[in-house]
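okkk here we go again. third time trying to get the zinc ion bound version out, last two times i messed up the smiles copy paste (missing a bracket lol). double checked this time i swear
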Amino acid sequence: MAPGVVCVQLTIALPGLGHVNCYVMEDERGLTLVDPGLPGRKPWQELVARLHRAGMDIHRVHTVIVTHSHPDHFGAAGHIRRLTGAEVVTHEHFKTFFDPNEEDDEDKELATPGELDSWAAAKERLHKARAWLHGAAGERGRDVAEGVGNQLRQWQRWNGPTPWGGEHPRPPRKMQLTYAVNQLTGGTYFRPPRPSARVVDGQVMHLGGREWVAVHTPGHTVDHLCLLDPAAGTFISGDHVLPTITPHISGLVRAPDPLKLYFDSLERMVSLEDIRTVLPAHGLPFANLAERARDIQAHHDERLELLRTAAADLGEATVEEFSQRLFKPASWGPMADSETYAHLEHLALLGQAVRRDVPGQPVRYRLNG
Ligand SMILES: [Zn+2]
Ligand SMILES: [Zn+2]
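finally!!
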């Protein structure tokens, strides 16, 4: 693919995506994998087999780099660490959808009274179970108790309202169930990884006999990390810049203006010099990083313009109403709403839209004509 980099394409079945590219580098210590695919037994078997066919042994993996906290990227990272003791490297802000969230634990004002009741009851049951497990089952019990706690917090998060008063995007039900079962039983393949090394922007890593620079590119997620080999002009772009699709920009992140973060991260692509090969997580390698970044920026500028046009006849409207002007009916739903929310908040922070919060009702936005 590029000097010192091999690509192992792994099958995934997510809406609109059929594969993820796992990039492999080899040095005298062994292998480094970037984004080792989806979690689960089948993806694991495929990863092992694909590496084997390329003459590489999974047991030689000493480092796994995870570009960001989505399951099709962190996938097997935790399992590889348990198998080989490999270093799991992420950006310092790495946090998965399935991770416990201390803040949400206390985040009660977001829940409606009905949900609060069941949450409180569930929590009490959890505390009892935890106390029993701690006493009865030692370390294994603590693992299970922790799993139950994580799952309860996760469900609470999916059930609560979103910041715009709509429904939460959720992982497919089958994935939720698999995670739930695996959290409860301490299942092997599905536990999201705990990073063993968290890096920051500009940090240099010696991998595959080359120097790779960590490039923090928040936007698609706040923890998104790209990798740059300046000597060869190779750029591993994760989901930040993809050749044919634009990454989802979620409004549900711990940042006031995720779209602005993304624009700034795109702008940085334009300033990177002498890039010869861009290796994306989905799709084929390409060369014109700056041009592709500008195209994606233009795409979002068009979306913002579309919102202004919609506002001309909608007047003050909810996120969902704007969303249905921005997206085709096939895409309507919480994911589209979340992205629309990110765009509306961006305009609000620019002073081009006014947000109105009415208790018990969805948030409404009016765009300045
Ligand atoms: Zn992603
Ligand atoms: Zn992806």
